[in-house]
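Standup notes
- DV: blocked on the single-chain target, sequence here:
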Amino acid sequence: MRRLWISGMRRLWISGMRRLWISGMRRLWMSLLLVPVIAAAVPTAASASPTASAARAARTAPAAATRPLQPGMSGAAVKALQRRLAALKYYPGAIDGRFGTNTLEAVWAFEEVQGLPAHDYVTSAMKWALAHPKAPRKLVPKGGANRIEINLSREVLVLYHNGQVQLISHVSTGGHYYFCSPGGGCGYAITPTGNYRTVVFMPGWVTVPLGEMYNPVFFIGTAFAIHGDTYVPLAPVSHGCVRIPMDIAAFFHKLVRVPGEPVYIR
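- DV (later): unblocked, structure below
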């Protein structure tokens, strides 16, 4: 009986161990099968992330690349714009890659000459025009090799020297509003059209009954002048004088003959 009991227990133990071994081997085999599957899945997920990032970059990159040049921006694109404007005889200020007031006023002048709507940034139409620019329309083709032309409809001044364009500037002329002078007398703010000549230059800030002028070059007595002002907007707002940007007023008088330079206003 003892031998039968021992023999039975031995068979039971062997049978149990066999089941445990088979179960363990089965788990090990399953885990070995799953490892390659998981390993293959991980690179797929990882590679999907850069692809998604690239897709997002592709969606956002064009917006940044096509952002129009405007005040406050800086860099190589702004410097290229300044060089192009300067080559066309507009004055963008220093060629320093910074889009400031001087560059904006040069942009306005270019748009005015090209007959484009003026904006505070470089439009796609202006980009095209920079590559295919039109020369300013001559108001008085036989007005002399050296002359100043002021186009009231475009709000732009063109200075000719030896028959060639030397400078193009945005201006602000008479605003056509009714006003009364503190010194007496009322009237409409109109820049008179006609043929004139420079009369006298007065350096620095000059006080007149209607305010102040910077470096005025007078062409009718000491009443109407081409002068610098801190406010030269797109709209005509002056009392009748021809306002030019301050940076241009700093040297404009050096480019013209005073007295005697012809001034044509149309």
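- Follow-up: Residues 1-66 form one domain.
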